[in-house]
Write a sequence for this structure.
């Protein structure tokens, strides 16, 4: 076991979380959420996506949100860009990192970005090239690495194939996503092993949705493999509009509690993180979808 002594969390709540909300969330609220996350010690926030507003209306205020953030030194701000049009729009917002997102399953690729896996790679190639030429770091996300809402189980070979394609076009870092939260530890381990055929351990992160309550267990097995970077979502916000029934990412608060308990450094202040989660949950009119946040809020109240 090579459990890392330090872990970096990317809070994807403002993007993966809020993209799925039906009710309008004003740009000012999104900006305030990012401010609260950075105040809690998050060093990377996935802020928004430059996708078609017809497909994901909630992210239509991407430029406004990016412009409204008071950037803090040492914090990196990433955005999703599915194609050249999105990249060119994103460039004006000066992101530190862009994310191109593909799927290990053909059906999900079609539903989510309206093209095949091969076509998505063709679209991403010039985006990756332009981003790297502009000095912008390129992360990739691989959806459905253990299961697909349309195709069911996804074989590790599909993951390895996609990771190879992403590596081939110059994607620098890769996220192994369980989009619909159906994964269990050994399946997730196999998806990570498939990714390791093309990417170094230091260039791999875990992105686990928590639909079936397995995301913490999946995080733990990834940690035991030495993975030290994870996407998590404050208050457990989230889901993908094109993955019906999938709930949010594992809650950042739950992962920080786990890591703190294991003596793993994150640089994150759990109390401030709980406050950030409470802020957005209050706005959305519900309780944070995090067991640790709930316990800590109850403790405060009592
Ligand atoms: P398309 O319809 O095939 O695109 O959509 P197109 O190139 O044919 O263009 C059609 C129209 O869209 C045109 O407008 C374009 O201007 C516009 P019209 O002439 O009809 O008025 N358009 C754009 N507008 C703004 N920004 C753009 C853009 N591109 C085209 N970048 C497209 C293809 C990829 C655009 C569409 O399918 C799309 O936006 N999909 C986004 C889906 C999405 O955001 N899903 C959620 C994020 S992924 C996720 O959550 C998974 C992840 O968390 C990991 C995991 O958990 O698995 C990352
Ligand atoms: Mg996701």
């Amino acid at each position: 076991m090579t459990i890392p002594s330090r872990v970096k969390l990317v809070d994807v709540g403002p993007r993966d979380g809020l993209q799925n909300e039906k009710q309008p969330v004003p740009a000012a609220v999104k900006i305030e959420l990012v401010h609260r996350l950075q105040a809690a010690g998050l060093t990377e926030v996935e802020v928004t996506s430059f996708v078609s507003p017809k497909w994901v209306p909630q992210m239509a205020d991407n430029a406004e949100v990016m412009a409204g953030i008071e950037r803090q030194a040492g914090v990196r701000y990433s955005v999703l860009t599915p194609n050249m049009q999105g990249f060119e729009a994103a460039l004006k917002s000066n992101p530190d990192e862009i994310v191109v997102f593909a799927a290990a399953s053909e059906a999900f690729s079609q539903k989510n970005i309206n093209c095949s896996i091969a076509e998505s790679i063709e679209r991403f190639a010039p985006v990756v090239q332009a981003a790297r030429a502009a000095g912008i770091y390129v992360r990739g996300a691989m959806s459905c690495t253990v299961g697909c809402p349309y195709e069911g189980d996804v074989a590790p070979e599909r993951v390895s194939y996609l990771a190879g394609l992403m590596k081939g076009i110059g994607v620098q870092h890769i996220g192994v996503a369980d989009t619909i939260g159906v994964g269990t530890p050994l399946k997730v381990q196999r998806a990570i092993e498939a990714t390791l055929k093309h990417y170094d351990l230091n260039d791999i992160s875990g992105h686990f949705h928590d639909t079936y309550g397995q995301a913490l267990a999946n995080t733990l097995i990834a940690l035991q493999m030495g993975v030290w970077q994870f996407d998590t979502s404050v208050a457990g916000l989230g889901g993908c509009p094109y993955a019906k029934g999938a709930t949010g990412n594992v809650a950042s608060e739950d992962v920080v509690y786990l890591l703190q308990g294991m003596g793993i450094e994150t640089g994150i202040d759990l109390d401030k993180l709980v406050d950030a989660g409470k802020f957005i949950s209050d706005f959305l009119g519900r309780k944070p979808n995090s067991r640790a946040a709930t316990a800590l809020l109850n403790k405060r109240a009592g």
